[in-house]
Write a structure and sequence with these properties.
Number of domains: 1
Number of strands: 10
Distance between the termini: 40 Å
Structural class: alpha/beta
Number of helices: 12
Strand order of the largest sheet: 1-4-5-6-7-8-9-10
CATH architecture: Alpha-Beta Barrel
Shape: globular
Largest sheet: 8 strands, parallel, barrel
CATH superfamily: Aldolase class I
Helix content: 40-55%
CATH class: Alpha Beta
């Protein structure tokens, strides 16, 4: 059983004049490795997967594997609202050397729970990669129901974890009750990571750790070892960052924050746009108070 305990970064995809900025991406991954993070997640929502073409999507995964040098896990974002496309991406990621696959719930077409079950089962049967489900109803319009997660955990040996971004500690508690102890729950929301761990999650797939990898890891490690006093102190220190990097659609604000550090260009692809002046000012003030910029 693969172990996904710890901190994993949902990587941004840096752009420069409309193209993928390979040098900035390599440096980003090097910082994750230096901070000791357990994993990186290329081409999730934070990686702007909706606006990457097919070749770019696979190239970003390939580069993540290459730059990680087996020093941290590579969990490739290979989900889609088309089952056939998700299978294709997942099989390609497996060939490229990814360690696991993150599978978001199909968005826009709103399948039933039976449709979700069949979608994820078809993907699981197509690959040997461990699969992490990803439930984020705010983006997809549907959640992966607790009973559906339990069915998938029972019926597919390689569906081993879920990234939970439903926004409630109660759902994590219900998932923990419904699932075998070996099935792993990861927070999909930086601001809820500590409370999620307190009721049975084993880590996070983080947006904030693009910017503060060591700090997020220290918070998660403290919570996982039962030092909730330290975890709470770190949570409080960076909570404003966790919230303000979502003042506008992800990954606009996290890229603005990273650009302020000089790590990449403040560039997203349409239909996303750079932050509004007012929200940018608020974010920069928060980063300054936290000692980040």
């Amino acid at each position: 059983m693969p172990n996904f305990s710890g901190t994993h970064t949902a990587l941004v995809t840096p752009f420069k004049k409309g193209l993928i900025d390979t040098a900035a991406y390599e440096a980003l991954i090097a910082r994750q490795i230096e901070a000791g993070l357990e994993g990186i997640v290329p081409v999730g929502t934070t990686g702007e997967s909706p606006t990457l073409n097919h070749e770019e999507h696979l190239r970003v995964i390939e580069m993540a594997v290459q730059f990680a040098k087996k020093k941290t896990k590579v969990i490739a974002g290979t989900g889609s609202n088309s089952t056939a496309e998700a299978i294709e991406y997942t099989q390609e990621a497996e060939k490229l050397g990814a360690d696991a696959s993150l599978q978001v719930a199909p968005y826009y077409n709103k399948p039933t729970q039976e449709g979700l079950y069949q979608h994820f089962m078809a993907i699981a049967k197509s690959t040997e990669l461990p699969i992490i489900l990803y439930s984020i109803p705010g983006r997809c319009g549907i959640e992966i129901g607790i009973e559906t997660v339990a069915r998938l955990a029972a019926d597919a040996k390689n569906i081993v974890a879920i990234k939970e971004a439903g926004g409630t500690v109660d759902r994590v508690s219900k998932l923990r009750q419904a699932l075998p102890e070996s099935f792993q729950i990861l927070s999909g929301d930086d601001g809820l990571t500590v409370p999620f761990i307190s009721v049975g999650a084993v880590g996070v797939i983080s947006v904030a750790s693009n910017l503060i990898p060591a700090e997020v890891k220290a918070m998660v490690d403290a919570a996982l070892t039962g030092d909730f006093k330290k975890a709470e102190a770190l949570h409080r220190k960076y909570y404003g960052v966790y919230t303000d990097i979502f003042l506008e659609a992800n990954p606009g604000p996290i890229k603005a924050a990273m650009a302020a550090k000089g790590w990449l260009q403040d560039e997203v692809r349409l239909p996303l746009v750079s932050m509004s002046p007012g929200n940018r000012e608020k974010l920069m003030a928060t980063l300054n108070r936290a000692g980040i910029v």
